[in-house]
Each structure stands twice: as structure tokens, then as C-alpha cells.
Amino acid sequence: MDTDRTLLHKDEIVKIRNRHIGESCKLFFRSDPVKIIRALGQYMYDESGNEYLDCINNVAHVGHCHPAVVKAGTEQMSLLNTNSRFLHDNIVLLAQKLTETFPSPLSVCYFVNSGSEANDLALRLARQYTKNYDVIVLDHAYHGHLTSLIDISPYKFNCPGGEGKKEWVHIASNPDVYRGKYRDVDLSLEELSQLYADDVKQQIDEAEKKGRKIGAFIAESLQSCAGQVIHPPGYFNKAWKYVREAGGLCIADEVQVGFGRVGHHMWAFQLQDAVPDIVTVGKPFGNGHPISAVITTQAIARSFAQTGMEYFNTFGGNPVSCAIGLAVLEVIEKENLRGNALQVGEYMLQGMKELQQKHLIIGDVRGVGMFIGVELVKDRNTKQPATAEAQHVIYRMKENYILLSADGPHRNVLKFKPPMVFTIKNADRLLHQLDLVLSEIAMGSDELKDPGVGSASCVPKCTESQSHQNDIVKVLIKGEVKVSNEVKVNGTDTGEPPNKVQKVV
To answer: Which residues are registered as beta bridge partners of 461?
Structure first.
């Protein structure tokens, strides 16, 4: 690639995209897309040199372009890259190091290239072992873009363009203690975990009445696309007990929440003091390089082998990917990123709760480590989703060089899942700017904007919130001035060093 070539203007890129990239491939901030040309740590830079604080990129887990990860990949690429049918150190060293982070008996790895591939393979393993086909999923769940995974993702099949639920899919209630079927204003956490687990049992019973058998229950260890949902303690132990008694296996999808993001543990399912039968990992594993894995037991792996069909993945487990995966695991350990997730995540969570005391629009703040959701509502009693307001917040934060997104069934949950090198200083800047934007909304003036952030989220067909996207919120837009050696927001020095002089209006 010619690194000296002239960069395309944003408008030209959009024209070429419209001509040659599939229309269903969406952009962040569609009304005013950002062109990013480089990134480092928790920062991304556009073609003009403007620096954006990245609060949403759980793929660049140990920081964009981490030098140790880049070095591992480039050095191995200069030596060899081939498939896993040849003996090589990297694949076995990575499998050994990865499985050391899991509780017994999870000890066997299959390396693949994406979270979608991992979840698809997990379904194959479960169905082969149990000889049952049906799958229990949580409402609003998303597990990947393959046909097999769209079929088990209500986040997709219950949205515009979706084909609805297949007869072999059984949807259990999302254990959302704030907005869900059972809520923490009425019940204790122990009661909530039992009631939501009983809902899984109900799905099993209803399936069996129809002569169907459960092969697997797949769930994210923390629900991400469903709105940064934290499951009540004990939920998995109770629900998985029902699934196993019915002959099914339990799959923990850690694609978005694994690799120490929760701080307390390496894997989010460990928050529940429960052990699944199969775990899938992905996004953060390669820090931007495509690598993922399925981790399971010897017994399940042996059952899969007994089919007589070889499992081969051309790129899964290649030396370059494995070198990168090893480097990511080493960086997490050497730089104590789990500890950072705990410290900075708790600081950010408490800061968000303080903003909740000030701003009535914040209905709920929830999270663990660097996995935080802030749910915006029009009314705290009715919990009417503030969908349009959430989208406007994202737009205004982007104008002030902070990248956020929203998700959940109503697209009203601001989600924070930044690179794990996020600092207290970054958190202060984020909290300060969010405070300003929410104050603007409370003051009221001007017209609300929807940034068209291009999230995979949707407002389901069956909800009332579609109309909320057309709401008008009057917002007083205040400018931000970046000067040569500091950033000032309404005259207040944020202490962030910018790269450009620019006024945002």
C-alpha cells in the first residue's frame, strides 16, 4: 500500500461507499460521519488531527495499536503464517495460557476468527453432545451475524427485516431488574434471580409439552446489546441447573464482556460463581485482529470428534493470530488492566450515580468494571424511554470529541465499554461533558438531532418507542473552543491536550 498517497475527502469516501459497499453496512454518525485515520491507546484521530476519546471500543481492548501487540503480529507475519495442520509453538502456547484462566473442567480450545464463528461452533458442539436441537435464548439477545445466529438473536429476528422466531427457539425473559418482567423496586435480588431462572424453566416445560428437547441455553454473561444488563446474583446457577436437568448444555457468550473487563474476574460468568459447559470469546482477543475461540470440556470435545467429521478452519489458530492473542493476554497481566478496570470503572460508575442525583433524565446507572450502562428516561416512575434524547447526547458528545453509543430495546441506554487503558482523567472529562450535555437538555432550546449512529440496535416492532424517535427536545447548544494547549468547555479547563484549534457550534 502506498502510504504517501493523497487521502480521500470524506465526501468522496461516502460516494464510493454508496457505490461499492452494501447499503446495509451502516456508519456511525450517518448524518456527519467521522473519518478516522489512526488511533493510539484510548484515542482516535480524524484526518484533520482532531483527537476523540473512545468510550465504546471494546475491541481495542488493551488500547488501540498497543506496541507489544503490533510487534508480536508483525514479527510473526515476517516469519510464517499458515494453517493449524502444521505443528507450531504459538497455537499450543496460546491454548495453554488461555485455558489457565478458566475454571476446571474447561480445558479444550477451538480457535476461529470471529465471535459469530465461535457461537456457531458452540451450537454445533452442544447439539452433537446432547443430540437435541432446540435453543433457549434471552429476549433482546444478539449472538452474531451468521444465519444460525440471527435465528437465535431476538435483537435481530424481532426487528425490522427479521423473520421472527423459529419453532426451535425459546425466548426467556431478559433478567433486567430495572425494566424487565420482574424489578428490583418490588423484589430482593435473591427473589429476582429465582423468578428469572424459573422463566427459563418455563421455556423448558413448554418445549417438552410439544415433544421438543433443549440442546443449549446460550446467554451473554452480561447482556450488552440488550442494554448493559447486569444479571442478578445466582441467576446462572439456578437457570443452568434447570437446563442441565433437561439434558441441555449451558453456553456463556463472553464475546463482548470477557478478558477482564469486569475487573473482579477474567470472565464475566465468574461474577455468578457458576461454570458453563462451553464459553465463546472474541472481540477483545486480538485487540482489533480477527481471532476468537470456543473453550469447552474434554467430554464435549470428544463427542464432537466421534462424529468422524474433521473440524478445520483455514485461518483459525494460525501463527500470526496466536502470537497476537498471546500478546494481548500478556499485556492484560503485565499492565494490570483488570485492576485498572476495577479502579477506573468504579470511579466512573460512582460519577454516573452522582449525575443521576442531579439529572432526572437518568433513570438507572448499572455496571461492573468497565462495562457501564446509563438508562435515560422521560419519567422515572413510568420509565418511558428517552430514546431521542439518548441519540442527541451521542451527537453532542461527538461534537465535543467523545465517542459514545446507545443500545437496548429502546436505544435509550448509553453504553460505556472503552479500551481498558481508560484513565481517571478520561473519566473526569467524560463525566464533565456528559453533565453539560444533560444540563442543556434540561434547560431546553433548539431542536433535537438524531446522529444516526449506525448501531446494530433496533426499536422492536412490538414496542411503543418508535414514536419517541420523532420527539423534539429543545436543547441549548453551547460551543466548545479548543486552544493550542488546553481544552476549554464554557470557560472551564478540562486539562485535555488537543491537536487542533477548532470551535464547535
So the answer is: none
Q: What is the enclosing helix (H) or strand (E) of 371?
A: strand 371-379
Those residues whose C-beta lies under 8 Å from the C-beta of residue 408, and which sit 6 or more positions away, are: 140, 225, 226, 227, 228, 373, 375, 385, 457
What's the CA gap between 335 and 330, in Å, rounded?
8
One-letter amino acid at 399 equals E
- pTM for this model (two decimals): 0.88
Q: Could you please report the per-residue DSSP string of 218-278?
A: EEESSBSTTTSBPPPTTHHHHHHHHHHHTT-EEEEE-TTT-TTTTSSSSSGGGGGT---SE
> What is the tens place of the pLDDT at every residue in 21-36?
999 999 988 888 999 9
Report helix angle 337-358 to 424-443, nearest 10. Answer: 20
What's the confidence (pLDDT) of residue 472? 21
Question: Which pLDDT does position 31 carry in this prediction?
Answer: 85
pLDDT in tens, 34-66: 999 999 999 999 999 999 999 999 999 999 999
Q: CA 292 → CA 95, 224, 258, 362, 448, distances in Å?
A: 12, 18, 11, 35, 40
Report how far residue 120's alpha carbon sits from residue 313's, in angstroms, rounded to the nearest whole number. Answer: 13
Confidence check: pLDDT of 242 > 90: yes
- Please report where in the chains the cell 433524565 appears, as a residue: 361
Query: What is d(CA 219, CA 204) in angstroms, rounded to the nearest whole number?
Result: 15
Q: Give the C-alpha separation, 471 to 76, whole Å.
A: 53
pLDDT of residue 438: 97
- The identity of residue 248, as a single letter, is G
